[in-house]
User: What shape does this take?
Amino acid sequence: MAEIILYASRASRSLAGYWILEELGIPYKVIDVDLKERKHLHPEFLKINPSGRVPVVSVDGMIVSERPAICVLLADRFGYGTMAPKIESKDRGAYLKWLVYATAVIDPAIAVEASNLKGPLQHTTWDTAKDAVDILGQTLEGQNWLLGEPFTAADVLIGSVVTMARLNDLLPESRVLDGYIERLRERQAFRRAERLTWPPELFSS
Assistant: This one.
């Protein structure tokens, strides 16, 4: 069995790392990189990820950062053919597209929306938040998941972005997207990942 280490922090984008591991059902160890305590800036962590961001995963000593790369690596290695469509599958292209879309398009659109900025190159580099919601809605209309019935790592990554954005009112309302988010939040793996990322003690007085 591979030795898997997840470098993560509470109340962060580590949700995606926890979630993909919980969906795959494989054992892993967690090393706390508490952002509030600025552990992400400690020299020992910067050697692992010079950008100082979480999550990061180590699989038998192979270090991978960036959420799409983490999802691709883990799903291909431990969920190939289920959480990750096979290379020859007709779904492989859309699967890869959604993995990239999550952080290359939706994340920047949310950042622009949250900061009330209007990027001059936005329409040539990524969609607006409304555009992204419309595109997701068109894809999800009449189906449970991004690729139809199979739930994949693309749903984990897109789901981790949109659930948190919706919770913070950073995406326009959408009947289809809200239904998708409800289905995501019903998954046991999501619930476990959510508790690990936002444990109850964070909200205790």
About this structure: The longest strand covers residues 4-8. The first helix runs from residue 15 to 24.
